[in-house]
Amino acid sequence: MRIATWNVNSVRTRAERIAAFLDRNDVDVLAMQETKTKDATFPYSTFEAAGYEVAHVGYDQWNGVAIASRVGLENVRTHFERQPSFAKKGDPVVEARAVGASCGGVDIWSLYVPNGREIGDPHYEYKLEFLYSLRETVDPQTLQLFTGDFNIAPRDEDVWDIAWFEGKTHVTEPERAAFQMLLESGLEEIRHADPYSFWDYKSMRFPKNEGMLIDFHLATPPLARRLQQAWVDVAERDDKGASDHAPVIADYDTADLALDQVR
């Protein structure tokens, strides 16, 4: 099973581009983040024409997550248990930041972890709470994948210049500790040789390769043992109209699961 995660930065703007990516890379499941649209305006038809079922959670022009699958889409969940709510003003709401579904025998979560904005901002505390609450969803004995934009660079080498990030989010010890906590709860980070998955639009970051690795596959041990290969499709970023993130793709050997379904 080939599974990809991609912060698409507006699914309506890039629907045809995403469909071409799915076809070109023969992707079975795509987890998307920052779809930036309501459920009613999601371009379902583009994905259905390509042979995919879609589960999407979107309430307005912000956030938004989705799973597109051609290997089945069951047990759809529009948030995880105890997912925290947030509002800087007004009543707190559970934002469109998590969607889960069973795809071909694997329980997959597409996640858009809060950015955090600035150290000391209420959004920063919300980010930490989101991660610590997510831990309770992990079942290390089953086939689970938590994938998406985590908005954390867990190691110094995961950013182009750690000195530049002094006093900024994404690299602070509390954020990294929360990421490590997920690993200690029973998840394994799927590593690859590509250093970055995100390049800010500002200051020509992509041509300078001044990037960050903040998009991940975190798999439970039974799934991680099935890993065959993983990589970042950097070429998808190097084009006019591209998202500021590149897809992170991994192949898992799930042939026995498919056989079980046939039986």
TrEMBL record:
**Co-factor binding details:** Probably binds two magnesium or manganese ions per subunit.
Location of site Important for catalytic activity? D215
Q: Where does Mg(2+) bind?
A: N7, E34, D149, N151, D244, H245
Q: Which Gene3D superfamilies match?
A: Endonuclease/exonuclease/phosphatase (3.60.10.10)
Protein name from the UniProt record: Endonuclease/exonuclease/phosphatase family protein
Name the residues annotated as site: Interaction with DNA substrate: H245
Q: Which family does it belong to?
A: Belongs to the DNA repair enzymes AP/ExoA family.
The Swiss-Prot or TrEMBL record lists the needed cofactor(s) as: Mg(2+); Mn(2+)
Annotated site location: Transition state stabilizer: N151
Q: Where is the active site?
A: Y112, D149 (proton donor/acceptor), H245 (proton acceptor)
| UniProt entry keywords in alphabetical sequence | Endonuclease, Hydrolase, Magnesium, Manganese, Metal-binding, Nuclease
Q: Does the keyword Manganese apply?
A: yes
What GO molecular function annotation could you give as one example from this UniProt entry? metal ion binding
Superkingdom of origin: Bacteria
Q: Where is the Endonuclease/exonuclease/phosphatase domain?
A: 4-245
GO biological process: what's one of them?
Answer: DNA repair
Q: Which Pfam families match?
A: Exo_endo_phos
Which PROSITE patterns does this UniProt record tie to the protein?
AP_NUCLEASE_F1_4 (PS51435)
For the keyword Calcium, the answer is no
Q: Which NCBIfam families match?
A: xth
